[in-house]
Amino acid sequence: MLPLVGMSLAVADPPVPNWGGNVAHFAFSVDATFTDVADAPEHPVWNFSYHYDWNLKAERYDHHQGQHIDACKVVEIVDDPCTVLSASDGQLYISSPSSCCRCVADWAPLTMLPDWISRNNGTYIGRSTQEGVEADGWLVYGKSDNHYYTTADAAQKMLKFSEHKNGELKQWDILEYSGDTPPADKFKPPSNCGTLCPYKSYGCNGRSKS
User: Fold this and answer.
1) I want to staple 68 with a disulfide (CB 3.0 to 4.6 A). Which of 24, 40, 203, 204 is the partner?
2) What is the per-residue pLDDT across 83-94, written as a single tens digit (0 to 9) for each?
3) Domains in the chain, start-ordered, CATH in brackets?
4) Do 81 and 96 contact (CB within 8 A), yes or no?
């Protein structure tokens, strides 16, 4: 047998991951740290919890105390905990412990597609260490550069997600991940929340999706 000198075997790129991880039911939850230099430069870091269930076409962001997320600032919820819910009834609700309103906008509700990375021709950018874990990364271009990192195994659990909005960082650093389907109650419309959010041309602009 002749020795294989100077030969290298090409290694195929890993499969393009789904949003969150490759659980077949397209549902997961994470606890994460959010860094938002783009929209909250004076208070750019806080924690939040995120729940997703594509079967209900629903997702929920529970931003913790100290949040300055732009969606909540639109309705003047700043610092206090704030929930942004794309609910199972197809409506978007923004609430705090003391207030709640329904946001009507041409962009809302905006639930992430499970295959948005492949739909947007995501490119594999190699292996690195993220959050102290060996990770695979993808680069996806939309309005900005989106970097998405997963565990380097078949589960492809979400580790980090970032973009640069107008050149400034917005980033999720995952602290805890669960591939279990969140309880359906997480995505129910809040009770006594029929009031429309205040009209804002850059937020709840009063124009429904066509």
Assistant:
1) 40
2) 999 999 999 999
3) 27-187 (2.50.20.30)
4) yes
